[in-house]
Amino acid sequence: MLVDHFPLLGLRLTTPRLELRLPSPEELAALADVAADGVHDPDTMPFAVPWTDRPPAEVARGVVQHHWMTRAQWTPDDWELDLTVLHGGEVVGQQTLRGRDFAVLRQVSSGSWLGRRHQGKGIGTEMRAAVLHLAFAGLNADEALSSAFTESRASQAVSRKLGYQPNGVYRHVARGAMTVEQAMRLTRTDWERQRTIPVAIEGLAPCLLMFGATE
């Protein structure tokens, strides 16, 4: 079976309301449709890489190609886990966890997006909590990083709720204008103090070497 050769296909995270996993081809198509329908106010740009500033068909195709690319380029020293988020069986968005030189640094970073009609329901907090549990409880990470433009108040609120602390500011150019990025950092101690959302992990053991982690 394919999962025997690429065990990440068997990795699943579940919370009280959500399931996170690599998508099937049909679920990847649904994820592309969600992205094409819009993930933010068109008057703003919350992403350092403006991947949504394209026609809907190109946005959808880009989501598919990005998933194929991250799977193909995966190594234990440089990986990106793009998990599709399902709420009540419906594809609603994506939660990413990244690691570079994880075996040495024990550090991860995250990113995410949700379809606009699924926002404002606490899903963003729950899906971030899921990958933080994977990082700290599953992979034995020491710290997790995140960042958001200062205009992205919802993302910053999720970080604060989960225990992240400010970790510097950086300037970027978005749509030809300056914008400020607020970096955030979550230590293992702060994660243990703040975690309240139960998370279950399935299928992790065969994946550990792919993450550069050990049991």
What would you say this structure looks like, in words?
The protein is α+β, with helices and mostly antiparallel strands and 215 residues long. The chain has one domain (2-211): Gcn5-related N-acetyltransferase (GNAT) (Aminopeptidase), CATH 3.40.630.30. Helices cover 34% and strands 31% of the residues. The chain is built from eight helices and nine strands. The chain has helices spanning 2-5, 25-37, 56-72, 102-105, 123-138, 153-161, 188-194, 208-211; strands at residues 12-14, 18-21, 78-87, 90-100, 107-114, 143-149, 165-174, 177-187, 200-202. The chain has a nine-stranded mixed beta sheet with strand order 7-8-6-5-4-3-2-1-9, with helices on both faces. α2 crosses α3 (56-72). The longest helix has 17 residues, at 56-72. The model has no long low-confidence stretch (mean pLDDT 92).
**Biggest sheet: strands side by side, in what order?**
7-8-6-5-4-3-2-1-9
- What is the rounded Rg? 16 Å
Number of domains: 1
User: Can you say what the CATH homologous superfamily is?
Assistant: Gcn5-related N-acetyltransferase (GNAT)
CATH fold topology: Aminopeptidase
Number of helices: 8
Helix content: 25-40%
By CATH reckoning, the class would read Alpha Beta
- Can you tell me the residue ranges where pLDDT is under 50 for at least 5 consecutive residues? none
Distance from first to last alpha carbon: 24 Å
Number of strands: 9
Structural class: alpha+beta
Nearest-integer average pLDDT: 92
Keywords: Transferase
Protein name: N-acetyltransferase
GO molecular function: protein N-terminal-serine acetyltransferase activity; protein-N-terminal-alanine acetyltransferase activity
InterPro entries: Acyl_CoA_acyltransferase, GNAT_dom, Ribosomal_N-acetyltransferase
